[in-house]
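=== RUN LOG ===
request id: a7f3
mode: sequence -> structure
chains: 1
length: 192
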Amino acid sequence: MDSAFDIEAKADADSLKGLSPQERADKLRSMLQTLLAERFKLTIRRDVKEQPAYLLTVGKNGSKLQRSKLTEKDCEDPANECHFGGAGQGRGIHVKAFGMAELAVSVSNFTDRPLVDRTGLTGLYDIDTDGWVPMRPRPTPTGDPSPEDIAMADPARPTLSIIFDKLGLKMEPAKAPVELFVIEHIEKPTAN
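=== RESULT ===
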């Protein structure tokens, strides 16, 4: 039987002060790993396997991406839309400072296989796109279609390939080494 758990945790704000957004993300990820190891006795290992993926590359006519007006220093202010958030198939991508590796990871949440950055582009970009049609089949509505079901079925909604083409990028199917996390051990936690 599958179990679900709600985990509520709060990081000490002082321990995150003065860190860059990437350093904050790395520290929060480390704290989460520690919490999962302590509460669930979770042990994982990283593995790399070649598997079907998409390669994100620069299109034949070159990148059409706009460099971000924000610097990493600007990204220390949480009010700036840097590195995270604002990406989803229904609403598009809306991030004021996004690196290509971050873009690939974010969009991978909506593709049918991992997306690997092979653009060679560095720095931060201001990315603002429309939403796109799902790559994975959507469940058939059991009742009346929701507004989201109707929006996703709109034949005028672009594909992810069209979205990338507008950015001067392309998504090519290929085999590529992909990092995986393999759970080696996990236990049901005890009550608090």
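=== NOTES ===
The chain has a mean pLDDT of 84.
The first strand starts at residue 43 and ends at 58.
=== END ===
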